[in-house]
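Hypothesis: this fold can be encoded by more than one sequence.
Test: take the structure tokens below, design a sequence, compare later.
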């Protein structure tokens, strides 16, 4: 048994602390990462539209999945940027690659979420205006 595993805390206190640290991470992201706030606004808009247009379970599934993936990827991007800044305080080409590719991952999920949103909501919005 490795020393790390042997000394690892277990029990309810560890679980409570895990939640506490998770909420601290969310708090940091909302305070200091503008894009996280923009994603949160997008979530509010999607949920509002979902309620207004009474989307079905499968549509909700896609919305919730993409909302979670975009937010989680943004958090991973934020943590990766912090680690890169810690280990490479000076400008370095590899640090740039790490930050840019993590940002690209958020962009890809955001784009997929936006396309899914258009597929789900555009027909419902157009129906209101009888454009279809």
């Amino acid at each position: 048994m490795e020393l790390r595993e042997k000394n690892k805390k277990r029990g309810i206190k560890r679980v409570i602390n895990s939640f506490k640290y998770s909420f601290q991470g969310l708090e940091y992201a909302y305070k200091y990462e503008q894009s996280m706030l923009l994603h949160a606004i997008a979530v509010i808009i999607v949920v509002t539209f979902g309620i207004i247009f009474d989307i079905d379970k499968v549509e909700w599934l896609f919305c919730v999945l993409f909302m979670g993936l975009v937010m989680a990827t943004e958090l991973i991007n934020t943590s990766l940027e912090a680690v890169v800044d810690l280990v490479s305080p000076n400008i370095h080409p590899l640090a740039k690659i790490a930050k840019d590719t993590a940002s690209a991952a958020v962009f890809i999920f955001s784009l997929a979420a936006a396309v899914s949103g258009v597929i789900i909501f555009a027909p419902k919005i157009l129906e209101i205006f009888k454009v279809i």
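Residues 46 and 52 are 10 Å apart (CA to CA). The domain at 11-128 is CATH 1.10.287.3610 (Helix Hairpins).
Hypothesis status: open.
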